[in-house]
Amino acid sequence: MLNVMIRWCGAAGATALPGAAFAATDVALLPRNLSPWNMFLNADIVVQTVMVGLAFASLVTWTVWLAKTIEIRRKTATARRRLSMLETDTVLAKAEQESRGGHDAVAQIILSAAREASLSGGHVDDGLKERVALRLERVEAAMSRQIARGTGVLATIGATAPFVGLFGTVWGIMNSFIGISEAKTTNLAVVAPGIAEALLATALGLVAAIPAVVIYNHLTRTIAAHRALLGDASAMVLLLISREGDRGPFRLARAAE
């Protein structure tokens, strides 16, 4: 009789605590390591491809930032130095001589103006000033395009990375539902890995997009400041030509050859 009562109590206890039994099963079946690296290794090939692409985009973002920052700082320092030279009591011929062999933007502005003055025979009039101004506009535009080269990819990454990450999220969640359907269970161990992988793809998309947008805006401001320096240099060259024209015809001794 005592044995029958013990069996009945054990069965009643098991019936009274089904949730605890299922919870123990869920915990037993859950992956022991859900670190980002293990989630990447266990992810679907499509989700892995999305993650690798986003990581590469993030690497490109920081590479462009480093390269463009060094380039802009170097070119801005050179432009300021040449602009200081133009602001002194100098003439176009002397400025042209000091700029020979230079490939920076301000040097190209000075050489282009000297070339046009040399072709005009040193006679300063309104036509010469217009021609020089046209040349300087072309040089400014070319140098602006050159210094802005490579920044467009940041805008592309900032605009598309969140959507690429969202694609990985949708694919991971879809795989989770497929796993639920095939296993015919809503066990957390079936759903959790796929959802975790999907959220990791979203996180990588944001990690790639946010710095790209911030860096793009920063580079846009610094490039605009550099363009303002080129505009100041063009204005100073036009002032030199106008000032020398008031003194009479001038000659650039083999200036632009």
TrEMBL record:
So where does this one cross the membrane? 47-67, 153-174, 194-217
Q: How does it sit in the membrane?
A: Multi-pass membrane protein
InterPro entries, per this entry? ExbB/TolQ_transport (IPR050790), MotA_ExbB_proton_chnl (IPR002898), TonB_ExbB_1 (IPR014164)
Q: Does the keyword Cell wall biogenesis/degradation apply?
A: no
Signal peptide range equals 1-23
Instruction: Name the predominant localization.
Output: membrane
Q: Which family does it belong to?
A: Belongs to the exbB/tolQ family.
- Give the record's subunit note: The accessory proteins ExbB and ExbD seem to form a complex with TonB.
Q: What is this protein called?
A: Biopolymer transport protein ExbB
State the organism of origin.
Bradyrhizobium lablabi
